[in-house]
Amino acid sequence: MFEALETGKFLSDKEFERRGAPLRQQLLKTQFELAARDLPVIVVVAGVDGAGKGRLVHRLNVWMDPRGIETNALWMHSDEEESRPYFWRFWRKLPPRGEIGVFLGSWYTRALRTALDKQPDSEWRAHYLKQVNDFERMLIDDGYRIVKLWLHVGRETQRQQLTEEAPQKQQNPRVGADDKLWWKAYPKVLQVAQDIILQTDTGGAPWHLLEAEDRNYREVAAGEALLQAMRDHLQRPGVDRRSSGTVDPTPVPADARQPRVLDTVDCTASLSKDKYRKKLNKYQARLQDLSWRAHRERRSFIAVFEGWDAAGKGSAIRRVTGAIDPRLYHLVQYAAPTDEERAHHYLWRFWRNIERDGRATLFDRSWYGRVLVERVEELASPGEWQRAYNEINLFEEQLVEHGVVLAKFWIHITPEEQLRRFHEREQTPHKQYKITPEDWRNRDKWHDYERAVEDMVAHTSTRHAPWTLVAGNDKRHARIQILKTLCKALDAAL
Amino acid sequence: MFEALETGKFLSDKEFERRGAPLRQQLLKTQFELAARDLPVIVVVAGVDGAGKGRLVHRLNVWMDPRGIETNALWMHSDEEESRPYFWRFWRKLPPRGEIGVFLGSWYTRALRTALDKQPDSEWRAHYLKQVNDFERMLIDDGYRIVKLWLHVGRETQRQQLTEEAPQKQQNPRVGADDKLWWKAYPKVLQVAQDIILQTDTGGAPWHLLEAEDRNYREVAAGEALLQAMRDHLQRPGVDRRSSGTVDPTPVPADARQPRVLDTVDCTASLSKDKYRKKLNKYQARLQDLSWRAHRERRSFIAVFEGWDAAGKGSAIRRVTGAIDPRLYHLVQYAAPTDEERAHHYLWRFWRNIERDGRATLFDRSWYGRVLVERVEELASPGEWQRAYNEINLFEEQLVEHGVVLAKFWIHITPEEQLRRFHEREQTPHKQYKITPEDWRNRDKWHDYERAVEDMVAHTSTRHAPWTLVAGNDKRHARIQILKTLCKALDAAL
């Protein structure tokens, strides 16, 4: 999850100006439109300490009209609050219709704090997060829009932030008294954070996961997420449209090329033919053993293959199927849905192909189509693909709970390598069928896909079902990486 | 909860004919309209054994076009199903858009079965019911309407049903093998059932709780609930309205006077002046002690007073406040909401008045207005008051979890007694201000209010926060019943 939020995104001051100015204007305009229509918005600013949450809240107050914003910094609790049911403190701070309530320190703080407990009570947390979901659902049903921003920084940045700010804090010893605790517990905090995000990343109130190392970047990214959500809110069905005209369609300036999680993949990785032979034999033999063992123990496994066009999915899958007895696996390939499939929930066509215990299912493209091609090609609405992260996590949770071993591969190649392969396909008679005009069209949207892959990894790479980003420029390396990962996953589970 | 479902409702065969015929016609018509617009519906038929679930499903197939209905009786599980994640069996049975899927034996069966376990694992059940809610939410977001019918019969009826059907069952020993188990566990089954209903009675997929002793009644009541839900589905925002015209507005014939939960209140109960004096002194003294003790132990208590106009709420409350030190309680009276209150969620104006630990809050009218006056006067939409049951239960759960002692009173009087009191008010100068034209108008809707009270008790009388139905024709009796109940609740909690 968080690996996609430590890629080094930043904006120069000049770029910040270029994008901040129109953003500010449009935020303000949208704020007034929401006010005119009596539509309330709640902004939750959450994340690890030292991620600049306070500064972001300040920025939002600068960018918008503070008369319509109420900022609630709930970091110390009065005895008035302590002596009433916990949510009382939030109920009394809810913004009225037409206004914006910003919560710095929210109903998520209490859940995150459990990371500091000696023995975090995960049953209690599950119960509490259910109350959080119920609370948000109630507000959404009542016409509120809840925008949840999660700001993430790496451990080192957190340390720096907390140290740099230390002098100010000495003026008030109560502020930051916990800093050291938080920093020490950082790995556990991330685990709890992932748990919280997964359990509360609902269709009605999805999380926006933001990389927060760079102040310029995080503020623009947060502002843009907020603007988009506020605009969606104006469009929601059932909202009174009589007043004040239509939604401003002006797009905000495009996101400049930013470092992406895919940039962390080492595309120079390669393997000599010789070494490849040896490793291929070794891992195929191991996979064969393991798949029989899984069969005997009635455990099933599922491998998901996604990746760029021409990344080598097909040939990698063949190396996997080559190692497994045909009686033990089922390979399913997904293109456009059939009529019958279209008449059901989009997950239906994947559920129907789950093999029984003791067998493997290999997915050549998968349910991730919803947040990749369907998102980029606008075959799914923003609401549909945004809530799909949660739907997918719930689906995979059920698989894993049942005992399925799940591995997910994104085979990554560079655009240059893709171009080389496209040309090669065009020039090789028996490969020409593999290259279509659609491949070239998809290539034009490389940037959009990169962004979609990044969000996908951020939202769905979980402890239970992590993504493996495969370095695919060298096909031999890619195949071995996949076989090895599969063997390791099976080995750990059996 | 279930006390409101054991009142003896029934329909004669003639009445069944009179109401069944138009109902059938309209169900069929609505089914075709849903099909024309590709809108899918899921009907869950749940409840205790022996409640006639199978017969109801048969009836629905007779009333509607079985070509558009798929009935899934999931009572035996194949090894195909057992060897996949649990929800796989439901996913593969989901109806495509435009069709109706009836589930006899559904995702609720597994949760209810835990009542037969020696040590029911409530943590597991909470986790499982979260998956149930997530599953339903996913389908609702995708355009499904889920109609959940809970059929209830009392223990004696269950025994008869299971005995009468025994001869048929001998032909197949696997059917009914569990009957005895279920019947023996009946009280525990009801506890688990309440737990299930509370946790899954969501705004998107609310439960319809039906009294099922009488076959005619339960089938008409279920048919009417289904018809209403299907019509609502045609109206939902965002649904394509191009095809097939508007929703049929023909109302189904009115519900004939049926026994109600309020009929179970013994309105002849009374108390002599002498006994009243003694008991009043006794319980007021006890309440005074208990309220101080609660204060010392930092426990708060909340009493909710609802009831018919002229039922004697005011004078009963005065007997309560007369017993408590004014420093220890706050009495809040609710009429129409203020502008500021209207600009928030309807629960906001109650949350704001919750007193702190160690103090009492007395609510003269309360959050139940949502499902009483606002429902009957159509100040809240059906969606709003239907989801309010769940919102109220969640709210009260938080109060009780925090340690609040909660008591809820509905003061019941007969319509004749109300009439007598209205006339008395008109004729007594110092009481004239108490009677307004609105009281007379409300009186005309007695029947609607009765129904609303019944649904309210069915949905919100829980183990943690039960309703007390107060016999109010004799004011002395009512006051003592209230004081006694309050003392008992405090005594048990402190």
UniProtKB/TrEMBL annotation, chains A, B:
InterPro entries on file: P-loop_NTPase (IPR027417), PolyP_AMP_Tfrase (IPR022489), PPK2-related (IPR022488)
One Pfam family matching this protein: PPK2
GO MF: polyphosphate:AMP phosphotransferase activity
Location of the Polyphosphate kinase-2-related domain: 12-233, 271-492
Signal sequence interval, chain numbering: none
Transmembrane segments: none
SUPFAM superfamilies in alphabetical order: P-loop containing nucleoside triphosphate hydrolases
Region Disordered: start-end pairs: 237-256
GO biological process terms on file: polyphosphate metabolic process
PANTHER family with a match to the protein in the record: POLYPHOSPHATE:AMP PHOSPHOTRANSFERASE, POLYPHOSPHATE:AMP PHOSPHOTRANSFERASE-RELATED
Protein name per Swiss-Prot or TrEMBL: Polyphosphate:AMP phosphotransferase
Gene that this sequence comes from: pap
